[in-house]
């Protein structure tokens, strides 16, 4: 019996089979969770439905997190299938491409900053706010962050402050929801080649640099992140909340790389 047997999980953020959310969905399904997937737009609907079928997930709902109305509608549809759910995974981020290449002050704009913070940080709060009446007594919310929240990283630019805001939201939401038995955590993942990541300038160099310095001397995979996510959202992690867990091969722990 898997350690998520009996849990119902809503997972937002699958765009392709390289998506971190796909690694999470596969790990959670393997551990016995029932899964509902959301997709951003009709363009992704068929692909996400096919992927849902692969893991036996029968619920697939549209959700553009930039709209409160869409979030409310998604939960209304979900309530037609499930009376409650136990796990929410927010694996969603966006900044306009022109924000992610070049020097910070040259590229950052008011509009780019608003969009990055809205889609990549506030949307996690909105999903919790409108979904909390459906959350079960022992539920867990999870989002995805990156080291750019706490260190400057070339080209990551405005996504750094957006991820810092997201990590602060994890702590505020954990404090707010803890008394109701709801845990809130984030995973700070190492770089992985996905659609979102391909928008960040010089991403390939970032991957090489990471693998040469991280204690594990390799890049992490969506399976590495998926397994950690399944654990964090399970009752095995019942004492963990308000936390950012690094799944980065140890990269953030290194002060100076040792020659091999
Ligand atoms: P991805 O492109 O596969 O996933 C990003 C998802 O965000 C897509 O499914 C997209 O549809 C969704 N999205 C964007 N705008 C949306 C909107 N308005 N409404 C609904 N959905 C929207 O890329 P990924 O790398 O799997 O990204 C998932 C999460 O992991 C993001 O938060 C990202 O910042 C984070 N992350 C990624 C890396 C990496 O290197 N790939 C590292 C650390 C953290």
Short description:
By secondary structure, this protein is α/β, with parallel strands linked by helices. The protein has 8 helices and 7 strands, in the order βαβαβαβααβαβααβ. It has a 7-stranded parallel beta sheet with strand order 3-2-1-4-5-6-7, with helices on both faces.
Question: Could you characterize the architecture of this molecule?
Answer:
- This protein has 260 residues and is α/β, with parallel strands linked by helices.
- A seven-stranded parallel beta sheet has the order 3-2-1-4-5-6-7, sandwiched between helices.
- Helix 1 links the parallel strand 1 and strand 2.
- Helices cover 40% and strands 17% of the residues.
- The radius of gyration is 18 Å and the shape is globular.
- Helix 3 runs parallel beside helix 5 (110-131) and helix 5 (110-131) runs parallel beside helix 6.
- It binds nicotinamide-adenine-dinucleotide.
- The site of nicotinamide-adenine-dinucleotide has 27 residues, from helix 1 and strand 5.
Which keywords apply here?
binds nicotinamide-adenine-dinucleotide; alpha/beta; single chain; globular
**Each distinct ligand:** nicotinamide-adenine-dinucleotide
Q: Assign a percent range to the helix content.
A: 25-40%
| Largest sheet strand order | 3-2-1-4-5-6-7
Question: What does the average pLDDT come to?
Answer: 97
Order of helices and strands: EHEHEHEHHEHEHHE
Count of strand segments: 7
> What is the structural class?
alpha/beta
How much of the sequence is in beta strands?
15-25%
Which descriptor suits the 3D outline? globular
Largest sheet: 7 strands, parallel
Please give the radius of gyration in angstroms.
18 Å
Distance between the ends: 42 Å
Helical region count? 8
Low-confidence stretches: none
């Amino acid at each position: 019996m898997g350690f998520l047997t009996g849990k119902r999980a809503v997972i937002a953020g699958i765009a392709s089979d390289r998506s971190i959310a796909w690694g999470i969905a596969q790990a959670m399904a393997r551990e016995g969770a029932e899964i509902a997937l959301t997709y951003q737009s009709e363009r992704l609907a068929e692909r996400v439905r096919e992927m849902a079928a692969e893991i036996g997930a029968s619920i697939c709902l549209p959700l553009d997190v930039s709209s409160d109305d869409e979030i409310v509608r998604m939960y209304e549809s979900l309530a037609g299938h499930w009376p409650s759910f136990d796990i929410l995974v927010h694996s969603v981020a966006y900044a306009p491409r022109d924000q992610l290449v070049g020097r910070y002050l040259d590229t950052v704009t008011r509009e780019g900053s608003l969009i990055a913070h809205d889609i990549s940080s506030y949307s996690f709060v909105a999903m919790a706010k409108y979904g909390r009446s459906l959350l079960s007594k022992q539920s867990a919310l999870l989002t995805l962050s990156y080291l750019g929240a706490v260190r400057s990283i070339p080209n990551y630019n405005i996504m750094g402050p957006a991820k810092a805001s997201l990590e602060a939201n994890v702590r505020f939401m954990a404090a707010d929801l803890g008394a109701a038995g709801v845990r809130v955590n984030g995973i700070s993942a190492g770089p992985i080649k996905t659609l979102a990541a391909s928008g960040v300038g010089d991403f390939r160099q970032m991957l090489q640099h990471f693998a040469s310095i991280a204690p594990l001397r390799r890049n992490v995979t969506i399976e590495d992140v998926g397994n950690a996510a399944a654990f964090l959202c399970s009752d095995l992690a019942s004492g963990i909340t308000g936390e950012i867990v690094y799944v980065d091969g140890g990269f953030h722990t290194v002060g100076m790389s040792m020659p091999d």
